[in-house]
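User: ok so my PI wants both of these folded by tonight, can you help

Assistant: No problem, let's get them done. Here's the first:
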Amino acid sequence: MINLSGRVAFVTGASRGIGRAITLSLAASGAVVLAGARDRHAEGVVREVVAAGGTAEWVTLDVTETESVTRAVGVALDRFGRVDVLVNNAGIVRDRLMMRMKPDDWDSVLATNLTGVFACCKAVMRQMLKQRSGRIINISSVAGQSGNPGQANYAASKAGLIGFSKTLAREVASRCITVNVVAPGMIETDMTATLDEHVRDTLLAQIPVGRFGLPEDVASAVCFLASDEATYITGQVLGVNGGIYM
């Protein structure tokens, strides 16, 4: 069992799906979790953590607004004095074939999925450098590795996240801060629940392990990378995809 007791974790996009699972898993491993989200669904996640004997708080967060990011991280620092783990999970999709994609579809996805990660990393970096420790885990996607029709904006943001993470990992490694990427494949979330049966069957046929992943599969990878067992791992992309991308 991974032990994260005494760690303070900040999770973005914590209200549902993968973010919810990450929040619950980090808390179950002993971390105090700040659940950042735009909507009040995160309050329900916090209640789940508390009911299970863990510690978590909801903080309002819009990663596309610098003031919101600064304020949310400030809450964590004022309340607990440190941030040991940052999980950048917040993300959106605006799927459309590139020829029909509107500039706003492009801009909004990049603003949330990539620029938002930059803002959150920048907000915690001074404290992590000061404490000479930290774990940054960015949630990318198999789409950022292989591409996916209709997702030029999303794939670009997730591929950019990989390059960003590798660069930041090089910059902060000497201060005992690791930066890694988890790249999920097809995971059972609200997004995949809307797929029609034919599309699901087509995708399922491409997954060697023969099933879609669960949010908990991603959360387990995040908890490992947040732990002391992963101190010598940085700048890496951990695929949680059932073998769909090898």
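One down. Here's the second:
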Amino acid sequence: VQVAVPAWLIVDGRLGAGGAATLLLGMTLPMAAMGPITGRRPWVAFDGRLRRGLGGCAAGLAALAVASSSGPWWLAAPALLIVGLGAGSLLAPSLTAFAHSQAGENTVALSLYNLSRLGAFGVGGLLGGVAVDAGAPGAAFAVTCALCIGTALAVRERADPHDDPTERRP
């Protein structure tokens, strides 16, 4: 999204670089605002939050696919807001929940997690760039939307073996 949206808007002549960057704030500002809200909790129900966040990302990406393929380009602004809220739901809670896991206590596992997470930005940028060069940015958003939906459907609720069912979480 961070590569494909500005590239699409600039290459198609819809906005200049400044306008495209300003429009992209529609995603980054909600993500930044969500951090203090979602990151304050000492414990987060990771599976449910992951599904909700991926659902928000999928809805926003679907709207971006429509906007960049056949719809009005201004639809990108509310779509980016939805993507930002979805991504903001994923970032702080996933790190909080992950840090409370066995893998979160292992620096190698946490490093591999961050490498995978940051590697996804590179793969997404490559997919977005190729799609814009091919004149089909909507395809990149649609594929990413499908990945979000697939991941959300694959997440299963699971009990933490360290949980005491009689103890309430804050």
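Residues 107-133 form the longest helix (27 residues). The radius of gyration is 17 Å. Good luck tonight!
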